[in-house]
Amino acid sequence: MNRQFALIIILFSGLALSAAAQTPAAPAPAEPAKVAVIFLQAALNQTNEGQRNYTELKKKYEPKRLQLDQLTSEIENLQKDLQAQGGALTDAERAKRTKTIEDKKKHAQRFAEDTQNDFQQEMQKLYSTLAAKVYKVLVAYAQKNGYTLVLDGGQQQQASPLLYSTPSTDITKAIVEVYNLKAGVPASSVQPAATAPRPAAKPAVKPAVKH
Fold first, then answer.
1. CATH topology of domain 33-183
2. Other CB atoms within 10 A of residue 134 CB
């Protein structure tokens, strides 16, 4: 997920620079600062739209997951047969079966990696699009409530300037509620996770592919 949130940070930075470029050269009158904190990654994950998109994406890739499970089972069965019959096989037959198993392992590993990459790219696109829409709601909310600065308290920013905040400054829940109302997407029956959804780790081949 770090890649898609890097894009989000770049988007925010670009908008901030654009606003700064429009600021008059003359110093503006000082005004009391009103600061808020949002946990952006959690906000994106908790929106009804984010939950719906992730659920639909998982459903789309379910056939490939089942296909990988089938490949895994096939490899495991071939390995068991080789172990059971190894003593009765000729060297040539044993070598042939071993090569078949190794070829299937390589195929399964490539299939898993390609599927994982495709999944991550689609998820990145979904979250980048969602982040841009949530940001517009965030800006409108901050302006309406008089916030002069909003910081992202999420851990996706390794150099985050936020060191401390009180619960009263956290507007994450408020932004999620406003966005859900504006987007009109009904709540999912699946409870949101504590962090943004991430694709499953690539299955290892040691010696068989593990889901």
1. Protein Binding, DinI Protein; Chain A (3.30.910)
2. 25
